[in-house]
């Protein structure tokens, strides 16, 4: 058997393992829906109707994703499970492109197939799974110097979760300058392509927002609540749980979402300026929450009563400690050439961490 056929058989088997584990978890999962899951389901059922979207923090990407899943497969979970399984193959090609090691790529695919949190997020109807998929596919295309396709997938990921939003231009810049050592003219062209794709995909959303709010709103009037929920006098944990970490007293009686967003944003900034010491302490707590080896949520929030929460913690600890240990080991052993290749992903990680450290770190 040729090497090509051996690899094809191996990755087909790994894909089937990934698909099987996700289907089994979906069927027998003890996990209940999160509140956001219900919200996304409602949005999926109204996204292409005349019913206005009243969830002013929601982006349209994931509801559209769920809508298409239901239309094509008559099941809201099908796309999530399928792309989570495909992500295993994407991750292996990403690994190979960076490290030029097929054996490592095969191990990467296997670990992605059985990684507990990949399996978990494929079945809880939250946007993290699709966001990671479109980001990874975008990065993979960028590593293969397919800037148009890479930009397209990254922009779709922004439509799902706009965490980095236009900060992704920094990622495009780093790919061009450091990975491919392009001339400045080529780098400028790649960034321009990204901006054109961004504008083309987001224009319908901008038009819809203008009709809703009577003014231009690039994403949603949701930055205020994200910033305020993590930075206010009630917050002691670094999380964003209502009503333990924040409440809506400062916007009580105000119906205009734009005004609410402005008030909460200004209040959060004022809190940060007037309480720098507490802000730093909350940032440290958020950093620790973000990289916690066990979940931050409470048992009663997600699990059936007959399921032992200690099992969740044990599985989480084993997988996260292993992930951090081997990631650290890899970073220590990196040579300069590989470090430069990894620079866009490392920068993305730093930016993502920084945003959650400044705002909130939940799960």
**% residues in beta strands:** under 5%
Number of DSSP-assigned strands: 0
The percentage helix is over 70%
Overall pLDDT: 92
- Describe the main β-sheet briefly: none
Compute the CA-based radius of gyration: 21 Å
Report, as a whole number of angstroms, the end-to-end distance: 46 Å
Task: State the secondary-structure class.
Answer: mainly alpha
- Global outline: globular
Number of helices: 16
Give a quick precis of the structure:
The chain is an all-alpha fold and 363 residues long.
Description:
With 363 residues, the protein is an all-alpha fold. The chain is 71% helix and 0% strand. The protein has 16 helices and no strands. The chain has helices at 3-28, 35-46, 61-73, 78-99, 102-114, 116-121, 128-143, 147-160, 168-179, 184-213, 223-230, 257-274, 276-290, 299-302, 309-332, 336-358. Helix 4 (78-99) packs antiparallel against helix 5 and helix 11 (223-230) runs parallel beside helix 12. The longest helix has 30 residues, at 184-213. It is globular, with a radius of gyration of 21 Å. It starts with a helix and ends in a 5-residue tail after the last helix. The model has no long low-confidence stretch (mean pLDDT 92).
